[in-house]
Amino acid sequence: MKVRILGSGTSSGVPRIGNDWGACDPTEPRNRRLRSSILVEHRDTRILIDTSPDMREQFLAADIATIDAVIWTHDHADHCHGIDDLRQVYHALRAPVAGYARPDTLAALTDSFAYAFSGRDGYPPTIAAAGLPDRLTIGGVAITAVDQPHGSIHSVGLLFEADGVAIGYATDFNEMTADMASLYQGLDVWIVDALRRAPHPTHPDLATVLGWVERFAPRQTALVHMDHTMDYATLCAELPDGVEPGYDGLVLPR
C-alpha cells in the first residue's frame, strides 16, 4: 500500500493568486502546492481523499482516470469543489463513483451539488453516496475513521491498513482528542496538516505538530496543507529525522 500526495497546499494554494509566493522560493518546484488531497493505492484499488478544486490537474499529473471510491473529510470548498471532475471518472468507469462522508458532510454536499448525487435534466447521477462508518473495507484496504474538531465543524481523520502497513491522514483540525491520539500511534506513515509556524484557530501549527510526532512516533511523517510561509528547503534544514515537508507527487512509504 502506498499513498500519493496529490496536493499539499492550503485553501489558497501556493503561490496565491497574483503570483504571491510569500516566503517560498519560486524556483523550487516543490513549493508549488495544489489544494490538499491524497490517493491511497493498494494493488488494483485506488481511494481518493477529497475532491479539491485542482482535481483535474492532480489526476493528469498522476496519470489516472479511475478510482474505486472517494472519501470526503469535510465540506469546505478547498476539499470538495472539484466534485464535478468526478463526471469524467463516471464516464471512465461507466458507473457512478462510490462516495463516502460523515452524515453532516454528506448532507452539505448533496445540498450544494444535488445534480452530482441525484442527476438532473436527463443527466444521470455521477456519485453513489453512502455514510462513512467508523470502519469499512474497500478492496483490501481496512479504513478507520475518527471525528476531528475543526473550528465550528468536524472533519474526519483516517487510518488505512493493508499488508502490515498503516498510513494515517489528519488534515483540517485544531485539537487532538483521545480518540485521534489512539488512531495515530505508531504509524508507518503519518500525513498531517501543518499550516504554518504561527498559531491558527482551526489548523495546527508546526511546533504543535512536531510535539505530536515525538509523542506518537510514526516512522515517517509528511507535512501538508501548508501555506506560503512554509518554504520547502528551509523546512528540510530544520525538521527532525523522519519528518519532511510533503509536496505534490510525493509517494510514501519509500
From TrEMBL:
This is MBL fold metallo-hydrolase. It comes from Sphingomonas oligophenolica. The keyword Isomerase does not apply. Pfam families: Lactamase_B_2. InterPro entries: Metallo-B-lactamas (IPR001279), RibonucZ/Hydroxyglut_hydro (IPR036866). Residues 34-203 form the Metallo-beta-lactamase domain. It comes from the Bacteria. PANTHER family: HYDROLASE C777.06C-RELATED (PTHR42663:SF6), HYDROLASE C777.06C-RELATED-RELATED (PTHR42663). Keywords: Hydrolase. The lineage of its organism: Bacteria, Pseudomonadati, Pseudomonadota, Alphaproteobacteria, Sphingomonadales. GO terms for molecular function: hydrolase activity.
